[in-house]
Design goal:
Chain lengths: ~110, ~100
């Protein structure tokens, strides 16, 4: 859930999404969902000469499963905060696993 | 909730994982991005020939095979000259 929350903080920012078919799309992040599907607006394909397939597309939906990278602009990301949040999430996951161990309770 | 709901009944262009591009009217979808499209046409791009348009009709595409769904700006699309447009075919998705 951490990265979902993180990407929600990036809504409205300019991002470049690189897909697993090597297509890179630049645009404004409009929304994101739990699968990390992205909706982008005012898009532009980075190498338009080579890939003129999307010339008439201004808004698009990118399926999370085909995203390779998301390029963000550095000033919009507080890396210290993100690192801290990642550490805290890892810790709470660990604690949850300790709270309910996989071994079955002894039979009375 | 669904991010795709506003695209329903609009002309969309779908990039599939095998690199194909299908243009049609989005009629329905579910939470796994399975979609139903009406009046589909495949647009086949090549580097040295005009864009080939193939009529497909009604399609149901499983979400797993969808890379991207683009909302088509009909004005911009009508202005496109597919006969003079040249471009590489899109590569298939490599996971």
């Amino acid at each position: 859930m951490l990265f979902y929350s993180f990407f929600k903080t990036q809504v409205g920012q300019h991002v470049t999404v690189e897909l697993k078919n090597d297509l890179a799309i630049q645009g404004v992040l409009e929304s994101v969902d739990q699968f990390l599907n992205f909706k982008l607006k005012d898009i532009k394909v980075v190498d338009e000469e080579r890939y003129p397939h999307m010339l008439s597309v201004k808004n698009c939906f990118v399926r999370g499963s085909v995203v390779r990278y998301v390029q963000l602009s550095p000033p919009t990301v507080d890396t210290a905060l993100l690192q801290d949040a990642a550490r805290r999430e890892a810790q709470s996951t660990q604690q949850m696993q300790q709270a309910k161990p996989n071994v079955a309770p002894p039979v009375a | 909730m669904s991010q795709l709901q506003p695209y329903v009944d609009c002309k969309v262009s779908v990039v599939m994982n095998d690199g194909r591009l299908v243009v049609g009217i989005l009629r329905g979808l579910d939470q796994t991005t399975n979609i139903i499209m009406q009046s589909c046409q495949e647009r086949i791009f090549s580097e040295d020939e005009a864009v080939e348009v193939v009529d497909l009709g009604l399609y149901m595409i499983r979400g797993d095979n969808i890379a991207l769904i683009g909302l088509i700006d009909e004005v911009a699309d009508a202005a496109l000259d597919l006969d003079s447009l040249r471009g590489e075919p899109l590569q298939p998705v490599k996971h």
